[in-house]
# Entry
Amino acid sequence: MKIARAWKFVVVVAAVCWCGALEPAALAQNNADGAAVAARRALTLRHGINLSDWFQASGDPAGLTEQHFDAAITDDDLALIKAMGFDHVRIAINPAPLFRRGQADQLPVDYLAYLDAAVNKVLSHGLAVELDIHAGGDFKHSLATDDRFVRDFADFWTGFARHYSTYDPDKVFFEVLNEPELADPYRWYGIETKIAGAIRAAAPHHTIIATGAHWSDNDDLLFLEPLRDANVIYTFHFYESHIFTHQGATWGDTYWHFLHAVPYPSTPENVQDVAKQVDDPVFRLRVIRYGTDRWNAERIDSEIGQAADWARHWGVTVICNEFGVYIKVSDPAQRAAWLTDVRTALEKRRIGWAMWDYDGGFNVVTRANGVATPDPLTVKALGRTLPAAVTVPASAAPEKPVKP
# Structure
């Protein structure tokens, strides 16, 4: 009996050692397969547009009705998006109506049905979709400070990913969180790892979209080390320089709303009049530095090149799923020049993109009496196609809506 037990022990140990010896090779193969899947699926995310007001609305919950969801983005809108040559949309989803502390994996069926209808409508038009959890500041603050809230968020993603796990993984993508606001990048790395694990357990075949710790800036991306899960696409947002792209904005840095007629490209000479608009000497210096930094096509290309180099170093796929210029006071031609330079730099490196946004304050279309009309300058800057039915002259300047 002792001899039998001894041989049994030897066989078990040998089996464990044999499996352990194969594990690194199997893991490497799994990683290679996952990375290849992510790279292939990223080809579906080459030219996209953000749908910002459909499910992101954070005002009175009473306004989030079936009528709102049916009217905010219609089949006509999606047909127009497809006709302009976009291949995917990114739906900004405010998680608050779906999120229940303590039972976050139990998603409200009625509200989820609205989102299901939207996703199905997008897919029916031959567009892929990024499901972007687009939370507000309080939600992100809780992630930064409350470990229990992180566990609830993981539970939420378990339920959310499980629900959409039956959708085509080549067409539906899961984005962990839009623009995290964590000052501690190490904490965010831990949170993102946990959420990715929850998603993967619930949806084994879908591709995850991950990002850096602070507003999804490209420099935060450079800090990030890839997750253990290889079936991941990494994203960054590009709004540099905010002095140009966010001039006139009433959120973010308080001095932005003073700015108007900010030039692009920038030089030390052409920002002097703009600097005089700013009384605070610290903020005025930022404007002056915008000029001395000479933001132009070459500078943008260099910045985006850093993200491309990061992706190449780690052997991962990267996209830019937000970039744009607030249109309230920006010069239309200079806005178009900035969009062209960013889009060109991204496509030069085969980085897929999604512009912010369809019909919000950075929009590619304007609305009148419920009808969406593409702005020809923006469409051209994005390298897209102005549908034949649209007869607006190519030289016409876009209408400037006042809503942010």
Summary: The longest strand covers residues 47-55. The CA atoms of residues 179 and 215 lie 4 Å apart.
